[in-house]
Amino acid sequence: MKYKVSYIILFILSFNFVVSAQDHKLESDSIVKVQTTSHESAQGHTDGTHDAATHDNHNAHAKYDPAATAIHHISDANVYTILDFVTIPLPMILYAPDKGWDFFSSSKFHAGHHEDGHSAYNGYVLHHGSVHRVTDAGFPTQGEAEISGFTHKTETIEGKDKDIFYAIHNGKEYRLDARSTLDGGVLGGGITSFYDFSLTKNVVSMILVSLFLLFVFTRAAKAYANNKDKAPKGMQNVVETIFTFIRDEVAIPFIGKDKYKKFLPLLMSIFFFILGLNLFGQIPFFGGINATGNLAITMTLALIVFFVVNFNGKKDYWQHIFWMPNVPVFVKPLLAAVEIMGLFIKPLTLMLRLAGNISAGHIAILSFVGLIFIFGDSGASTGGGVIGTALAIPLTLFMMCIEIIVAFVQSFVFTILTASYIGAAIEEHHHADHHTAEHH
Amino acid sequence: MFTLLSFTPFQPTPGLAFWSLVIFLLFLYLMKKYAVGPITEALSNRETEIANALDQAKLAREEMSNLKSENEKLLAQAREERSKMLQEAKDLKSQIIAEAKEKAKEEANKIVSNAMNDIENQKKIAITEVKNELGAMAISIAEKVIKKELKGNAEHEAFVNTLVKDINLN
After folding, report:
1. Which residue ranges make up each domain of chain A?
2. Per the CB < 8 Å rule, is A304 touching B21?
3. Over the range A253-278, which residues count as b (16 or more CB within 10 Å of their CB) and which as e?
4. Does A126 touch chain B (CB under 8 A)?
5. Domain assignment present for B6
6. Looking at the predicted structure, is the pLDDT value of residue A392 above 70?
């Protein structure tokens, strides 16, 4: 039985690689014909002169770039692509302050390879899976417009080299505005001219995972009602094992027997939501979503934890932050400074730890898969491809096993830290009692 | 850190943050209402039931062991009583035997002493009779002698009587 499972996994993996390898070969062939398809490359284009000569060089630029591929695969996308064959269009919900709301399906972009759109719609284009707005004058702001390709230049802005992307429409280049981000341009994304509230790949996978978890849990809950006074079976058993583990090893030890019931739904939801998304992202062929490796999602979870912890903070908790009891007075302000920093560092570490671990796992797997294309010289050398595949399969298999452990460990770590923060916030120390008792 | 954050997956997008908040809060609410709440309750109910059942089993076991020890006690008591009764019976038997022996001895002694008395009496009677006979015989002999030799001699008769008196047969 054990061996059968491993053979099946090996078969699936090798199939995946072969398909992807052919895919890349096709791509590099098609580049010669469709000269306008440009890819991210390490060398980049130095200048804006796009004549026929630079287009001829595209064949050389089409070399497999592992870093760009990895970044592309772990990023969120406005289309849901399965194996480059099936592209599921997703609803676009866009808002630009100067333009208003736009609602349409991402199928309007006619996404092709590398999730680049072949058309623009209402002034928006799809590049590498994510939506960008074009505000350059002359670009059609209403309806569909043909995009013959994308190109990019490295420009130096404020002493920093930046890749700026351009869409090619009617032979002219139009600058893409920065992606919709929350940082206001502070973190290098640039100031955004629009806000993207679309149901992206990650949003869709969150909905799918939530629905699946709710289905499993409500079934298990029903089983308790129907199967009263009987031993649990099937799904109920699986749910109960993890459920009682979280309750007995996380909630009760950290929060306490009297108060844990109030926070149990939050801990369970956090654990299963993260675990579900972690494992969903590990399924091959399924879009390889990286939801829990995305800072926006982990930030939301960390913020929820931050608010739950601080809204439930008791007098003792705040006293320990602002005026630590039982230490000399001159230490108190120092400790207060440290504690106030800790207040924000705690959710920040929650956010970064989860996103970092899951993204790192995805990048590691993609890098091992990338060995096939590096050895195979982007599809030019079949022998190298075979060697690369032989190397990549055991490495990827190993990494996938590690990733399954990481999926469980990271969701557990997030949950146990949440429980410990809540436990610290609601704990009542009775320091004052001890103090007065000592004096009397 | 800024270099790290300039990777696209590390730039938090407002849409994704908004949707993940909405989805997670909905998920939390539904989980609380339809899953975690009922399951927690069912589990704690079952746990108390199991604890109760275990307590009851323990109680029953205790009761049984109590019963058993009581039984053993009763048995021991019965055994003790039996041995006591046996002892008593034995004692009684030996007592009865001893008493009977005593009585028999007494009776026998009595009989013997009665017999002795009787014998004594009979002996006395017999001796007296013998004495009397002897006296009479002596008198008659003496009478005959005296009749023959000393007819009517009162002196002799008195002398003979003293002689007879002196004959003590005891």
Report:
1. 13-63+77-199, 203-439
2. yes
3. ebbeeebbbebbbbbbbbbbbbbbbb
4. no
5. no
6. yes
